[in-house]
Every structure is written in structure tokens, then in C-alpha cells.
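dude i think i finally got it to work??
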Amino acid sequence: MTIFTEKNSQKIALAAFIISSINGCSVVPGMHMDPFSDESSISMPVTENNETLLKSLNIKTITAQFIIDLEKDINNSSLGKDNVANHYFDYRIGSNALKDVPEKKSYRQYHVGPRDILKIVVWDHPEITTPASQFIESGTMVGEDGSFFFPYVGVVQAAGRTVEAIREELTQKLSKYIERVQLDVRMGSYRSQRAYIVGEVKSPGIQLVKDIPLTVLEAINGSGGVTTEADQRNISLTREGKIYSINLLALYEGGDMSQNVLLKHGDVLNIPDREFNKIFVLGDAGGSGKPIYMNKGRMTLTEAISEAGGPNQETSDPARIFVFRGGLGKPEIFHLDAKSPDALILADRFPLQPRDVVYLDRAEGIRWNQIIGQVQPTIGLAQSIRSLVK
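look at this
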């Protein structure tokens, strides 16, 4: 007959607690996909017929036929007009950007405005010609009301008119006082019209609108060009209360000249950063888990896996590579079986979208080994305690 002392009772209680805790160690912490499931284990919000529903998503397998079907849609290519990477503003709360550029209008000659400075020269009459100076900005300044005063002529309305029209009026009125008037009117300084260039350019600030047309390209080049952080696909142009989207890459690489919009007074050109163009590689990848930036808004599945350091050769299961797409557009899940390395050829033709999550799952055998590794020390300790209380 065993006599239970208080000390033995404490040991028995401790052993019982440890043994009961073993069950809690039977699950490896972390995220895992169900073995080769054909649909998502949770319901996702899906929009159908303008109504948001909760549905389980089918997991699409990336095969050669799937890649062929994918490439039939031009919008899956980098230069596709409706490629999701070109619609940054569709996924920003409160954004009302229009998908097209402003209506193209033919260039019109420069029109004078308030604060512009005119150079007016009347030949053989220096008394009414503003003397030139290399030290100060000389000339006749147009007032805030759009007019200026000139000797023998009086007040001349200049705002909204071309220098040719102003020259013609001055010549006509001075001809009453001067025989065979020879007169020239030129722009001395452009000060009335300006566009604002902000965001990821090297020298953000004001670009003056002059007699030479100021296009998007010239404005960006005049600001030192874009920085390495710029998203060239999703430039925004704010004009008269409306926001338009401009795709500079479509101009550079696709020759779409409609993107080279002619700027006018009051325009704000914003070059956003590339924070939208991130890919997340999680799971058993060899890298640090930091977000990967897409190059000009494009990246393939192979490139993303490579940037993340590739699959962990000791613990990952290449047959279980998944792409989760839910932040932009239609939620989707894709699966790649890369157990054979040549499957990475398919992956290199699978284009990712901004905010995609690539997940490399852990091999089943590794999980079981982890369970045994976690539980074994606890079992050994429990057995040691049992031997003490016998």
C-alpha cells in the first residue's frame, strides 16, 4: 500500500498538469493550407451584380493551359489599359480620379495675363521705350486688372490677348501722333500662368506656362525627372476640380502620345510614390519577409519568389505555392505545383498584381517532426516525475 505524503501529492499534481499540457502541443503554430484543398477554408467578400456576398473561393491551378487563357486578355499584360496596376486611384478611399486623360485640345498661342511683363519698343522714339537693363527686370508690367498704361495711348487691355493683337492696337493708336510707326511687342517675363509639379520628382515646385507648350514630359523633365520611388503608371492631374490619371509608361513604352497632356494655368501634376506596388512573400521563403517592390508595376511569380530568397530547401513544400489576390479587384486564389523545377517556367509567365500575397507552405513531414520535437521533452519530463512518485 502506497502512502501519499503532501510532497508526493504535489508531484502527482504537477505530473498531471504536464501530461494534460501535451495535447496543447500537438498543433504547430503558424499558418498552413489544408492539404491540396480545391477551395478556400474561409468565406471571402465577392461582388456580384453590384451586391457583396460571402463565398468560398475556388483555388485555380496554374497550368500551361491556364497561362494560355490568361495571355489572351491584353489587360493581363503590362501595357493593357485596364491592367490593375494602372488603376491606383480605384483602390483609394475617397478618390474620384477619372480613368482617361483630359480631352485633347489644339495648342493656342500664349495669351497675356496679370503680372506678365511686356517689352514694347518704338523705333526712333526712345522717350517712350522702356530702357533695357541687364540688372533689373525692365518692361511694362500688366496690372492685376489685366491692363497697362502706355504714353499717347492710355490704358490698354492686355489680359487674354496675344502680343500680336496688342501690337496692332498700339500701332494703330500711335499712328495719330507718330508718322510711319515701327513698333514691336514681345514677352519680357512670363509670370501670370503656372502649373504645380509635386510628389516624386527631384525638384518639385512651379513650372511657368510660356509660349512654348508645357507638356507633362516637359514639366517632369523641368523638375529634374522622377525619383526612384515614383510610380510612373499612376500620375494624377488635377484640373478645375477634376482628377485625371496619366500613365507615363504607356507613353514611354507603348508610344501613347495622348498621355503627354498639354498643361495649362492652375494644373497640379502629382507623381505618387510606389508604395501601392508591393508584393508580399510569406511562409517558408528564404528571405526576411519584407515587402517586395514591383519594377514599374510589373513582376512575375518567379521573380517574386527569387527576390524573397527562394523556397527554403529544408522545410518548404514546393508543390504548395499559393498566390492570394484580394486587396484589388476580384478576390482569387492560385496554386502552383513546383515539385518539378520546370514548373517555374509557368511561374515566370504568371503576372502578379500589386498587393498580391505569395505563400510558400511548409512540408507535411516537417510539421510532424516539429510536433515530435516539441512534445518529446515534455513526455520525458513527465516520465521522470512519475518515477519519483512511485
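The domain at 117-189 is CATH 3.30.1950.10 (wza like fold).
im so relieved honestly
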